[in-house]
Amino acid sequence: MSKIAVFGVGYVGCVSGACLARDGHQVMGVDIDAGKVEMLRAGKSPVAEAGLDQLIHDQVTAGRLAATDDCQRAVDETEMAMITVGTPSARDGGVSLAAVEHVVADIGRALRARPHDYTVVIRSTLLPGLLEGPVAAAFCDAAGRNLGPGLRLCNNPEFLRESCAIADYDDPPFVVVGVVDDWSAAEVLELYGSISAEKVVTDSRTAALLKYACNAFHATKIAFANEVGGLAKSFDADGRAVMKLLCRDTRLNVSAAYLRPGFAFGGSCLPKDLRALTRYAEQQALRIPLLGAVVPANDAHLQRAFDLIEEAGQRKIGIVGLTFKAGTDDLRESPYVTLTETLIGRGYDVRIYDPGIAVTQLRGRNLAYIDQHLPHLAALLVASPDELCQHAELLILGSPVAKDVDWKSLARVPVIDLERDLVTAGRDTAIAVDHPAAN
User: Does residue 66 register a pLDDT over 70?
Assistant: First the structure.
C-alpha cells in the first residue's frame, strides 16, 4: 500500500483522501488552512458530502488518515503527492494556476531539502499544456532536478459529482492517468486497485482535455435538451416526451455513434433539418443559439481543411472520395463536394477518384445538386488510383472509400487524411488499458 500526501483538503481532496485511506493506503491531508487541518485531525469533514463525515471519522480512528499544515513533514513521510487544490477561473476566463504552482514549488523545495524518489499526481483540473509547461517548470526549478525515474509528474482527472461523490469514486466510468514521460504509472494505478473500473494510461495532454471534454459535453446535453424543450413548447408539443423517446435510441442517439472526431458532416438530412429548425425559431423570435451554431461550427471545420491544404503549398490536388458516406452515390451537401468546389474556385487543379460515382447514373436532386456545384464532374473523375497519383502533388483522403488503398505507399507525395489530420497533433497516442474483467 502507498503512503500519499493529499494537498488541498477541500471537496475533491477530502473525498479522495478518505477513500484512499479506506482502501488501505496511508494518507496525510495537507492544507494551509489550520481550521481544516484541525477538523480532519478530529475526524470531521471540512466539507458537506453525504457519508463523508463517517468515512473520515472511521479512517482517522483506524490511523490511516492524518492531517498537517507542514509540507516538509508531509513530503518526508510519503512517496507520492496528490494535488487537489482549486483552479478557479482567472479574470479573463482562463485557468488560475496560482494554487497549483504554489503547492508544486513547496513540494519541490521539500524534495531539494531531503531528496528521495517522488511522484506528484495532479488531480486539479488544468488545460492541456499547463502541466507540461509552467507547472512542471515550477516543480523542477524548486526541486533542483529534472523529471525522470526518480521524479515523476502526471495527472489523474476526477469525475466526482457533489452529493454522490463517494459512490462516483467507487464506480467511475474509468480511471485515467496521463503521464508526462513514457512510463507505466503502475504506482498511481495501484492507488485504485480495489476499484473494478477500466484503467487507462495515456499522455497527459489527452487526459487533461478529457476532463474538459466531459464537462463540456454534459453542459451541451443540458443546453440541447432545453433548446428542444423550447422548440417543443412553441410547436405545442411535449419536450420531455420528445427527449424521453430520443434517449430510447441507444444505437445512434445515446451512444458512441457520431462521437468520433474527423471531417465535417453533410448529406441530404442533417444540414436541411438544422436549417429548418433554426429558420422556424427565427420566425418565432425563439433563441436557440446552440442549434443555431451547429452549421456554422461545421463550416468552421471545413475552413480548417481549406487552411491545411493551402499551408501545404501544392496546386495539383488529388481527392479520394466525394460522396458524404461510403457505399452511396449521394453527393447532396457532401462536405467533400464543398471542399472540391472551393478548391477549384481558388484555382487548384483537382482530380477525383471515387469508384462509387457514375455520372451517367446520377438522377433527380442528386444530379441537380452536382450540376449546380460541380458542373464538370465527369472531367474531374479519374478511373484508377494510379491515374490519380500521376496527377497529384498533394493527396486528400476523404470519405471511407479511401481506406481501400494504401495511398501513402502508392502516392509518394504528401497526404492529408481529413479523418485524422484535422483532429490530431500528428502523432499516435499510446493508450494502455487494463480491463478488470479480463484479470
Answer: yes
pLDDT, one tens digit per residue, over 312-331 is 999 999 999 998 877 777 88
Number of domains in the chain: 2
Same domain, 313 and 179: no
- Rounded-to-integer distance, Cα 437 and Cα 439, Å: 6
Residue 308 lies in a domain: yes
List the one residue out of 417, 122, 423 whose CA is nearest residue 260.
423
For position 439, what pLDDT does the model report? 37
The span from the CA of 138 to the CA of 133, in Å, is 9
Asked if residue 223 is part of any domain, the answer here is no
| Residue from 164, 214, 247, 269 carrying the catalytic annotation | 269
Domain stops at, among 149, 177, 203: 203
Q: Is 149 part of a structural domain of the chain?
A: yes
pLDDT on residue 363: 84
Does residue 273 fall inside a structural domain?
no
What type of residue sits at position 45? S
Q: Which position has the grid cell 488503398?
A: 405
350 strand-pairing partners: 317
Which amino acid would we find at residue 406?
A: D
> How do residues 116-137 score in pLDDT, each as one tens digit?
999 999 999 999 999 999 999 9
Domain containing residue 370: CATH number: 3.40.50.720
Going by C-beta distance under 8 Å and a sequence separation of 6 or more, which residues neighbour residue 347? 315
Sign of CA dihedral 113, 114, 116, 119: negative
**pLDDT the model gives residue 428:** 59
pLDDT band at 437 (very low <50, low <70, confident <90, very high): very low
Largest CA distance in the chain: 83
Average pLDDT of the chain is 93
Residue 429's pLDDT is 61
**182, 203, 224: which is the final residue of a domain?**
203
Is 14 designated active site? Answer: no
pTM confidence score: 0.90
Determine the structural domain holding residue 73 and report its residue range: 3-203
